[in-house]
Specification:
This protein is an alpha+beta fold and 354 residues long. The protein contains two helices and 15 strands. The radius of gyration is 34 Å and the shape is elongated. 18% of the residues are buried.
C-alpha cells in the first residue's frame, strides 16, 4: 500500500501546481485576446487599403477597366468584412473556452496544416489530374510565372516539292501521318501581365510518308528517289524520327485569380495562339514494306541513312482554346540531301497540352 501512496502523491502535486499556475496565467491570456480582438478591425482595414491602392494602380496602368476595378474593390471590402467577423468570433470562442475551463486548456493549440505546392502529371485536358505527386516540404509560391505540360500531337503528314503544291505530291494524303510527344514549359514574359508567354520544350517527332502507287525509296549514287517495286506491295511506309527543341511566342487572354496567399493566371477556357519554330537532330529513317513473293508473306524493316538531312529545323504554329489546339509545322530543311528536286515535310493536325 505504501508504494502506491508514494506514486500517487507526486502525481497529485503536479496536477495541483499545474492547475494553480494555469489559474494565474489564463487571466493574462484573456486580456491579451481581448486586446487582439480590438486590433482585428485596424489590421483588416489596413489590408483593405493596400488592396484598393493596388487595384487603383492596375486601373491607371490600363491593366483593368474602371468597371473591373469597382468590382474588385467591392469583393475586397466584402472579404475584409467577413475576415473581421470570422476572426473576432474565433477570439470570442477562445475566450469562452478559457473562462469555462479556468485556463486549464490554454496550451492546447492546434497546429495549422502546412500548405504545399503540388507538382502534377495530368493525363486529362484542363485542370483534371489523375496522377499527382506532392512534395510536403515545398511552400506555395505567391506567384508562379512558369508552368509545364506534356505535349501530344498527331495528324496528317506530307511533303511539298519546290515549285509544286500538295496536289502534286507523290504521297498519299490519308496514309501519311505524323506523331509528336514531348514536354513543354510556359513562362509569362511580363511581370504583371499574362497576355504574352514564351512556350518552349523538347519533343520527339515521327513523320511518316506513304508513297502513291507501287513505289519504294531507293538510295543510289548519293540520291534517294522513288522507284517501282518488282512485286505488288501490300504496304509501303517511310518514317523519319527527330528530336527537336520547339520555341513559340504565345498570345492570349487569361483570368486573374487572387487568393489570400497567392495569385494565379488561369488559361482555363481561354483562347491561345502561338507562332515559332523548332530545331534539332534527325535520329534516323526507316522503311517498312509488306508484300508476297513466291507465295510467302514477307515483311521488311529497312533502317538506312536514305540521305535524309541530319539537322532539322522549321516553322510551326498553333491556335485553339485551353489545351486543345489546331497545329501545323513545316520543315525548312529538305527531306533528302542532294535531291534533284527538294521536298519539305509539312504536317497538320491536333495538339493537346495535357
Amino acid at each position: 500500500m505504501n508504494h502506491i501512496v508514494h506514486k500517487i502523491i507526486p502525481l497529485l502535486f503536479i496536477l495541483l501546481t499545474g492547475t494553480l499556475f494555469a489559474q494565474e496565467d489564463y487571466q493574462d491570456r484573456i486580456e491579451k485576446l481581448k486586446a487582439a480582438r480590438e486590433q482585428v478591425v485596424t489590421a483588416e482595414k489596413e489590408a483593405l487599403k493596400a488592396e484598393v491602392l493596388e487595384i487603383e494602380r492596375r486601373r491607371e496602368a490600363g491593366e483593368i477597366s474602371a468597371e473591373q476595378a469597382q468590382v474588385l474593390k467591392t469583393e475586397a471590402a466584402r472579404k475584409r468584412a467577413l475576415n473581421i467577423e470570422d476572426r473576432q468570433q474565433m477570439i470570442d470562442r477562445e475566450i469562452a473556452l478559457l473562462e469555462r475551463n479556468a485556463g486549464v486548456v490554454a496550451t492546447q493549440e492546434k497546429t495549422p496544416p502546412k500548405e504545399v505546392e503540388r507538382i502534377e502529371l495530368s493525363l486529362g485536358v484542363g485542370e483534371a489530374s489523375w496522377i499527382r505527386w506532392e512534395d510536403p516540404d515545398r511552400p506555395v509560391p505567391y506567384d508562379r510565372r512558369t508552368y509545364s505540360d506534356m505535349v501530344l500531337a498527331f495528324g496528317l503528314n506530307n511533303a511539298i516539292a519546290d515549285g509544286q503544291g500538295l496536289e502534286d505530291s507523290p504521297y498519299k494524303v490519308a496514309g501519311s501521318r505524323f506523331f509528336e510527344i514531348g514536354w513543354a514549359w510556359r513562362t509569362r514574359v511580363f511581370k504583371e501581365s499574362n497576355f504574352m508567354r514564351l512556350h518552349y520544350g523538347v519533343s520527339f517527332q515521327f513523320n511518316g510518308l506513304k508513297p502513291e502507287g507501287n513505289q519504294v525509296f531507293v538510295s543510289e549514287n548519293g540520291q534517294t528517289t522513288l522507284q517501282p517495286f518488282d512485286v505488288e506491295l501490300r504496304k509501303a511506309k517511310f518514317r523519319m524520327d527527330n528530336l527537336v527543341v520547339p520555341v513559340h511566342l504565345e498570345f492570349g487572354p487569361s483570368r486573374f485569380r487572387e487568393y489570400e496567399d497567392r495569385i494565379r493566371y488561369s488559361l482555363r477556357n481561354q483562347f491561345r495562339i502561338g507562332f515559332g519554330g523548332y530545331a534539332g537532330l534527325n535520329l534516323g529513317a526507316r522503311q517498312k514494306l509488306k508484300y508476297t513473293r513466291d507465295g510467302e508473306r514477307v515483311k521488311d524493316k529497312l533502317k538506312r541513312d536514305y540521305n535524309t538531312s541530319d539537322f532539322v529545323y522549321g516553322l510551326s504554329a498553333y491556335i485553339g482554346v485551353e489545351g486543345v489546339l489546331l497545329y501545323a509545322k513545316y520543315d525548312l530543311n529538305p527531306i533528302f540531301e542532294n535531291a534533284a528536286v527538294e521536298q519539305h515535310n509539312v504536317s497538320l493536325g491536333l495538339r493537346f497540352d495535357l
